[in-house]
Fold this protein.
Amino acid sequence: MYQNIQQKLLRSVNAIRKQTDFQPSVALVLGSGLGQYAEQMELVCEIPYDTIPDFPHSTVAGHDGRYLFGYVSGVPVVAMKGRVHYYEGYDISDVVLPIRVMGMLGAKTLVLTNAAGGIDPTFVPGDLMLITDQIASAVPSPLRGSNLAELGERFPDMSEIYDRALCEQIRKTASELGIALRGGVYVQTAGPNYETPAEIRSYRVAGASAVGMSTGCEAIAAKHMGMRICGISCITNMAAGILDQPLNHEEVQEVADRVRHTFQKLVTAVIGQLER
Ligand code: HPA
């Protein structure tokens, strides 16, 4: 298992290094709504996941999967257009493999984005939420199995996954741009089914403000490697039971699409302030 993960990581990095010597300082995961983010980048190279040996690629229809290498406001960035989710059936270590690869390519800061359901009843669909902490105990830890000591320690501290100083900087940036930014705890579920109202009530009592099916495990893997992390959720719907109406995937996509310009603007400004 351990050998297997290590080999996959090395094979992936080698395959990428055969195609580009680009040195990213920032890694970015593009969630729903940021699928068109390549428009904001001065692209240098694109590598489809299915050209990298053993690399997980999405099974969800219409989910493109590729790394984008390029510059955002002069900052060298590797972006993931498309991510794999635990609900697709991959082992959790495969789900986080693309994140670890970005760290191994040299990225020091990770910007995570996603679509999420609002649990905080003061949220409205279309809000953006800065992730301040997370609950990811509904999925296995991506660090399960032998420790990859080259990446990090066996029992890494998770008391500050989302870098406080970076969060403060992002709040300031949003305020300067006149973009309203909420804040809160993100809870990751295993999916693919949406949650029940009773589950959402339990997450609310536990302190969660938003729920989604990605990101938590990615942040743990990145923190293990010592990356500096921040995350922004696009609240695409109210979580189950908050409103008296069923949830659907189309609504999630519609709202993500509606907010995309504001979301793009914020992410670009945030990256522009990171060191090159
Ligand atoms: N639940 C889980 N994942 C989600 C949701 C939700 O309500 N909205 C967008 N992703």
Notes: The chain has a mean pLDDT of 94. The pocket of hypoxanthine is lined by residues 115-117, 189, 194-195, 211-213, 236-237, 239, 247, 252 (CB under 6 Å).
